[in-house]
Design brief:
The protein has 10 helices and no strands. By secondary structure, the protein is an all-alpha fold.
Length: about 250
């Protein structure tokens, strides 16, 4: 197996060049922007919504933590599947699930339904790996660092926009409006990704459980992961968790 498309017998198109590449970079970049908007537009009011549905502070913590469940379980499988099958199907699915999860959050009648819906948005967030690699595939391999820099800039801009605008939208139109707005953004991003072709994958690595174990045991990876865990705890436990309630 040398290509992701080998299993289906079809050959993916080569990477676009020139104006075509620029056009598709803009499209995938816009879809990425919508992806993060769909996941974060309602974040400033999510703990407040949980309280309104009767959740105690312990349950609020569970709702916030649910976002990580899908990512813990699916980030690695999504990455492997993207290399084997292709990145675009996972990227489109991520946006659709983000939209459905946001809609479910808005319609949730109780805290446990909110918990389940937030878990679904975490599954959607696991698709970030497919979206990021799809975006980078429009660059030549020697410009992968530039691709990641551009994509992380889009990511940061969308998070700032979503959390700022989400609070304003909730103030004027109510908490539920942020969930429905996020759902619309997710579906819009999925439609955009359907326009962009997926460049050919040059080669696909063969995977084994031993390879995965060796990667997980890498000392540098473990140290960076520990730092990331601390950052995530502060971000979601404080900023996106209980700070909105106490503020």
């Amino acid at each position: 197996m040398t290509q992701a498309s080998g299993a289906s017998g079809k050959t993916a198109p080569p990477a676009p060049t020139g104006r075509s590449a620029t056009k598709y970079l803009v499209i995938v970049g816009a879809a990425t922007y919508f992806f993060w908007i769909s996941l974060y537009l309602y974040v400033p009011v999510l703990p407040l919504q949980a309280r309104e549905l009767g959740a105690n502070l312990e349950m609020v913590g569970l709702v916030i933590a649910a976002y990580a469940i899908g990512q813990i379980l699916l980030r690695i499988p999504v990455g492997v599947g993207s290399d084997i099958i292709g990145r675009k199907p996972f990227a489109v699915a991520a946006l659709v699930l983000a939209a459905l999860g946001a809609l479910w959050l808005g319609l949730a009648p109780n805290p446990w339904s909110l918990f389940a819906a937030r878990t679904l948005t975490g599954i959607a967030a696991a698709g970030w790996v497919a979206i990021s690699v799809l975006f980078a595939s429009y660059y030549s391999p020697d410009k992968s660092s530039r691709a990641m820099a551009v994509l992380m800039s889009v990511n940061t801009l969308s998070l700032v926009t979503a959390t700022f605008v989400g609070g304003i939208v909730a103030e004027y139109f109510g908490n539920l409006s942020t969930f429905y707005g996020a759902s619309g953004m997710g579906f819009a991003g999925a439609m955009l990704l359907l326009i962009a072709p997926e460049p050919r994958i040059a080669k696909t690595a063969r995977y084994s459980l031993l390879t995965l174990v060796n990667v997980i045991k890498t000392p540098l990876l473990l140290r960076v992961a520990a730092i990331a865990i601390t950052l995530q705890f502060v971000t979601f436990g404080v900023n996106f968790g209980f700070l909105p309630i106490h503020a």
